[in-house]
Amino acid sequence: MTMAVKHELTRAAAEEFIYREVRLLDTLELEEWLALFTDDGLYWLPIEDGDLADAADAVSIVYDDAERRAERVYRTLHTPVLDQSPRSRTVHMVGNVEVAGADERGDMRVLCSQFIGELRPGGQGQVGLNRTRVLAARAEYRLRATPDGWRMSMKKLLLLDADQPLYNLTFVI
Amino acid sequence: MVAAPELSSTNLVLDRPDTFQVHTRAYMDADVFAAEMGRIFGRTWVYVGHESQVPAVGDYRTTTIGRQPVIISRHEDDQIYVLLNRCRHRGSVVCREELGHSNFFRCPYHNWSYANDGALVGMAQASGYPGDFDKGEWGLRRAPRVAVYRGLIFASLAADGPSFGDYFAPVQKYVDWWLNRSPAGTITVLPTAHKYPYPGNWKWQAENGHDGYHGNYVHESWQRLLERAGEAPVRDIRKYRTGGCTRGFAFGHGLLERPGGLNPNASWTGRMMVRFPEYAEALRATYGDDEIEQISARRNIFVFPNLYLFDTQIRVINPIAVDSTEVHLYVYGLDGVPDALNQGRYRAHERFYGPSGFGSPDDVEIFVCNQTGLQASGVDWVLLSRGMHRERVGGDGEVVGHSTDEVPVRAMYREWERLMSA
Ligand code: FES
Ligand SMILES: [Fe+2]
What we know:
The structure holds two protein chains of two kinds. Chain A is of the alpha+beta class.
């Protein structure tokens, strides 16, 4: 018997998903993080808030489809990458989670706020290292029910300072 | 103009037939930075924006020339005005937005109002000034000289000095080729930009944009990504990177050039001509093979002191302090090409550039590595002599070097030295 995929998303289930998602970032389990996306999923940090449909004709801070996300993770974990040597340590804090109904594809919209602390440790006196930064963002997730559980068809972060000069955002945010 | 401290070229730039060195103070000394703001940014032609960013009458953008706040404004006569963003009454800025549209600029302090060309049109409670108060004398100060070249807007805060034509002449043909990648010969700058700050001197970015020496090391990660994507093995990328040349010009301009050509393996524009036959047709309708060979060559063109023209972006270097810089990358669309071609350019840009790109942030790491390293003052000089023994003079009198040589950096510091000591 095939089970109909369940579409109800409780706030508790949404929180559980997002807590795990950001924990995978904090613990650098990035390949596991990749698996949380649907194949057509997008990881998006716009410069200006707007519709995903307009992103193709604009320039975003991050506009990653599956291939670009895989590159991002590959470069971070498996190449001699200067901008992540030393690597960023992060702590994500998620709050104000709301389940906001289904989008036109039937994926569930989840809104939340995030604070992300980040630090790259280095030797004494190294310019640009050894300071904690705090990023604030409004987040929107689109979650799709799949036979394997909920998966992200979009993770969008609108940084508070998205249109400002931004220093090294090469860790997965 | 800022009074310069005691600086002489022999102090900070050592330019001899066998060696070329720049003193640590050029990057680390706040007095040198203050002198640069006056002697370089206060005198030369400085890039301030692109016409497509203020397309309609009443459009404006604010920016800086060095540290000085200015407004780029399109007045009802359709002309571009570069106005000092400083109220003539008691000095407040009259515009605080990054960009917008307005029929006038109104000072927030006592409500003086200025037209889009800077003319003073009214003072609040005007009876406090005598009837013969000459409003014509008290408009926003305009940059004394403004020049627009095929949409690129430059301003000079000095009334005198080399004409724009003289200043721009050495790079003009390269800028033409860069623009002619658009069959219409024009570009449209996107409304939002990538911006990144770094805690280091502005000249690190100026030096790096046409440095062809660092790629195999700083961007090894990027080269591995291209290999992973099946675009080219690292070995081939490195071989290709030895091709082309560097050029150093009068007035501090310079460029890094990769071979162009219709071979799609060598040139991105060449690849686009294969992928979009209508694009190839449009270029061929206007240009012959020799011209297309030049148009399709990839160049990073530096226009001293603050402008880089790249494949996907207009890059503007904004000096903030001796150890603080902001870089803005204004991505543009080529006019008259298929949307998919521009979208491909935007995706290629996002992949490499910007604060989360797979290339630019690696360069920024080097700028802060430099800024940390130069704290060690027991060594006084950085060495910029690479390729001096093998450089030659090109067809227009420019200096031409191997693609990994420091030819354009020397051109920049010769002009820097000339301006700082004169
Ligand atoms: S300072 Fe502008 S009106 Fe007084
Ligand atoms: Fe680089």
